[in-house]
Design goal:
Elements lengths: L1 H19 L14 E2 L3 E8 L7 E7 L5 E8 L7 E5 L2 E2 L2 E7 L3 E9 L10 E11 L2 E12 L2 E4 L2 E5 L2 E9 L4 E4 L5 E4 L1 E4 L4 E5 L3 E4 L4 E4 L4 E5 L6 E5 L15 E4 L8 E4 L1 E4 L3 E5 L10 E11 L2 E6 L2 E12 L4 E4 L1 E12 L13 E4 L1 E3 L5 E3 L2 E6 L2 E4 L5 E4 L6 E6 L2 E2 L11 E2 L2 E2 L5 E3 L4 E4 L12 H6 L24
Parallel strand pairs: 2-10, 11-15, 13-16, 14-17, 15-18, 16-19, 17-20, 18-21, 19-22, 20-23, 21-24, 22-25, 23-26, 24-26, 25-27, 26-28, 27-29, 28-30, 29-31, 30-34, 30-35, 31-36, 34-37, 35-38, 37-39, 38-40
Antiparallel strand pairs: 1-3, 3-8, 4-7, 4-9, 5-6, 5-8, 9-10, 12-13, 32-33, 41-42
Length: 487
């Protein structure tokens, strides 16, 4: 009885809803036009041979009667680089599509561009033509194409049990030079073999696909040689506007143990939107080389900005900003930083409360859950360590290994440490440095009231006489990577 009553109610509801629904007629008035969500479907730079993301185009009927679209077509037909999808169907032409009154159709557009001989971006175009009641409307399709050098993995190596697909770009005793004429698109890892060297010249752009990056194998060497005018850029391979600040698009630059006299060098680079910006780990043996960084920005990494185990690292004039875990994380090793800004205002998701802008240790647990120790030494000179956390400097030290840190003329955000404690000289604590827009991130100093102005150590200002923008800091250096410049 209860089931019969339920079925009766459903049937009555359907009958009422059908009786209330108006029967709209197709209106043939030639003055009626479609509306669209955009008059141009525009694609940012698309690498040749690779498909773009899909762009949506909404087609609206704003009238009280149904409209029949006589035809929709890509003007270039099968020769078009664009692909059009309407209601789940891919075609170059559609006919007699009806849009109900006050309703819309969803359509989607993609583009795949054929390569040519150009080194500079070039334009590809087409049009979508809509004919309704004899009235023709045009939607422009526009994309920028860019030829590229493609590095595609063809082998796999396992490191720590994890697969690393790779292609050798610099083999043993070989020096390979990447130049700025065309960007490099990396699928998997671009691998520098033992006793090989990869040099990346000024203005070169390196775009890494998901889970890819650059890998310097044991005794390999990576040299990035950008300039202030033409930095080297390493980022993900999606160039649409949505991806400009999306972290975790690619994996990392991984530097394993290197040979003596073959330091890794990174100068005037911008490394953004990966998982780990720079990962320094001597996997097969103790490293004989160091990593030397200058005038470099590492930003918007979903994991770590600079991650180091037992590695010597020297960095001058640098910014590490907005990383999901720690901007700088180290286990053991020797570190010297001069005029650096380490700022964490991570906002892509909830910041890991166990991490800090700077997190360092001299001990950890191995794969067998046994603790081991590694000596640690760090100097921070005229640096800024700041962010959203109450404490942006964390240490995990055990007594079984030496651990030393020296902060000279630094600004640090911390509730645990203060200027009366050993290791801190002429330091400031918990004072807002007045960054211009740290969420962006823009870590320039934006106020004459900033406590970092003129409070750096002149000794280090003379060592690094120009800031990251090329502004002189000699005489009255500010803390951090940038000198304050009044507007």
């Amino acid at each position: 009885m209860r089931n019969r009553l339920f079925l009766f109610i459903i049937a009555l509801f359907l009958l009422v809803s059908q009786s209330c629904r108006k029967n709209h007629q197709i209106n043939p008035d030639a003055n009626l036009k479609l509306d669209f969500s955009a008059d141009t479907v525009l694609f940012d730079t698309v690498f040749t041979s690779l498909g773009s993301t899909t762009h949506e185009l909404r087609i609206y009927n704003q009238y009280s009667d149904d409209l029949q679209i006589s035809s929709i077509r890509l003007v270039k037909g099968d020769d078009s680089p664009f692909r059009f999808n309407l209601d789940g169907e891919n075609a170059t032409e559609f006919y007699d599509k009806i849009i109900p009154a006050k309703d819309s159709l969803f359509s989607f557009v993609r583009v795949t561009i054929n390569p040519n001989d150009s080194n500079t971006p070039f334009v590809v175009e087409d049009e979508l033509e809509f004919v309704t009641n004899g009235n023709t409307q045009i939607i422009k399709l526009l994309a920028w194409g860019q030829n590229a050098n493609y590095i595609v993995a063809d082998k796999v190596v396992y490191i720590g049990g994890e697969p690393y697909p790779y292609h050798i770009v610099a083999d043993s005793l070989q020096t390979t030079v990447w130049t700025k004429e065309r960007p490099y698109v990396v699928y998997g890892y671009a691998l520098i073999n033992s006793y090989g060297t990869l040099k990346i010249e000024e203005g070169t752009r390196v775009y890494c696909h998901q889970n890819g990056g650059i890998l310097s194998w044991s005794d390999g060497q990576l040299i990035i040689e950008g300039t202030a005018e033409e930095p080297v850029i390493v980022q993900g391979d999606r160039l649409e506007a949505y991806y400009q600040t999306t972290p975790g698009q690619w994996q990392q630059i991984l530097m394993m143990d290197g040979r003596a006299g073959a330091d890794h060098r990174i100068s005037h680079a911008i490394i953004r939107n990966g998982t780990i910006g720079l990962n320094c780990q001597p996997t097969l043996k103790a490293t004989g080389c160091a990593l030397r960084i200058d005038n470099t920005i590492i930003e918007n990494q979903s994991g770590y900005g600079l991650f180091s185990m037992f590695y010597p690292v020297e960095a001058k004039n640098f910014v590490i900003a907005n990383c999901g875990y720690a901007n700088f994380w180290a286990l053991g090793g020797e570190y010297r930083f001069v005029h650096g800004t380490i700022a964490n205002y991570w906002n892509a998701n909830e910041h890991n409360k166990n991490e800090h802008a700077v997190s360092v240790a001299n001990c950890a647990y191995d794969a067998n859950e046994e603790i081991f120790y590694a000596p640690f030494y760090m100097e921070m000179n005229s640096c800024i360590i700041y962010g959203k956390q109450k404490d942006e400097f964390k240490t995990s030290f055990g007594p079984e290994a030496d651990s030393t840190y020296i902060f000279d003329h630094c600004l640090i955000k911390s509730e645990k440490y203060n200027g009366t404690m050993e290791g801190f000289s002429h330091c400031l604590f918990n004072l807002d440095p007045c960054f211009a827009d740290p969420m962006r991130p823009n870590c320039h100093i934006d106020s004459i009231a900033s406590p970092v102005i003129g409070t750096g150590n002149p000794l280090f200002g003379n060592e690094v006489p120009f800031d990251l923008d090329g502004v002189s800091r000699v005489g009255a250096p500010d803390m951090g990577a940038y000198q304050y410049v009044p507007r």
